[in-house]
Design a protein that fits this description.
Blueprint (H helix, E strand, L loop, with lengths): L1 H21 L15 E3 L4 E3 L3 E6 L10 E8 L7 E7 L3 E5 L4 E11 L11 E5 L13 E4 L4 E3 L3 E7 L9 E8 L7 E6 L3 E5 L5 E10 L4 E2 L4 E5 L1
Parallel strand pairs: 2-8, 10-17
Antiparallel strand pairs: 1-3, 3-6, 4-5, 4-7, 7-8, 9-11, 11-14, 12-13, 12-15, 15-16, 15-17
């Protein structure tokens, strides 16, 4: 009788244990909103008015959370010098900026729990100044190798993109390349293409930047990028 009772109590305890471990529903995983696409200002646009009606596509949220949008505007392509950050609950907002400046912007969707989605692409535009006839080119956009990337080989092709809000301007590039963290040696001057092959050595870290010039003498100073060789 005692053995039967112990067995019954054991089964009862096991049932309680399973119930306590498996009972209740799990909180759903909070997923980030989708990436948005920028609509206006379009890439490399010359804006006559400095009151800009920013516009982008709507984001969707996998958990059906409410979504807001973080708009970041900077004076450099890498967005390390952000001059304005604003939040919108709809996919458009009007922002007034200084005239006569190049700007770079992106939008990130954020759900009401603070989960951020992947930032949008970075678009460049220029707000024209009073009486201004020529504007400086936009800073060069990195293509490859990626900043701080580790690569192999004895040569590498540096690639970038150039752009100017003045349609019809001819762009040339000065390529600075070397082992200094702030390269001062010009590897190639007045280059008309957007790529350059350079020799590299194993175990070294190289730094490079692109200064962009138009045919009227206006120039933009590029960001310094780096890569390391295995």
């Amino acid at each position: 009788m005692k053995r039967v009772l112990n067995k019954t109590l054991g089964l009862f305890s096991a049932t309680l244990f399973l119930f306590s471990c498996g009972g209740g529903s799990k909180e759903p995983v909070n997923e980030a909103p989708t990436k948005v696409n920028l609509t206006y200002p379009t890439q490399n646009l010359l804006c006559i008015d400095n009151s800009i009606p920013f516009d982008w596509s709507d984001a969707t949220d996998p958990n059906n959370d409410n979504v807001s949008y973080k708009i970041e505007i900077a004076t450099n392509r890498e967005l390390t010098n952000i001059i304005k950050t604003q939040t919108a609950t709809v996919s458009n907002i009007t922002i007034t900026l200084n005239k006569g400046e190049a700007h770079y912007w992106r939008v990130t969707a954020v759900d009401n729990k603070g989960k951020e989605g992947e930032p949008s692409e970075v678009f460049a535009f220029y707000t024209k100044g009073e009486g201004e006839t020529n504007t400086a080119p936009f800073t060069a956009e990195l293509v490859k190798p990626k900043d701080e990337e580790t690569i192999s080989g004895t040569t590498v092709t540096l690639e970038w993109k150039g752009a100017d809000s003045n349609v019809g301007d001819t762009l040339t590039y000065d390529v600075y390349f070397g082992e200094e963290a702030n390269p001062t040696t010009i590897k190639e001057e007045n280059l008309s293409t957007t790529s350059l092959e350079v020799d590299i050595e194993s175990g070294k870290t190289y730094y490079w930047k692109i200064n962009t010039k138009d045919n009227f003498g206006a120039k933009s100073i590029g960001q310094v990028w780096s890569f390391t060789i295995n």
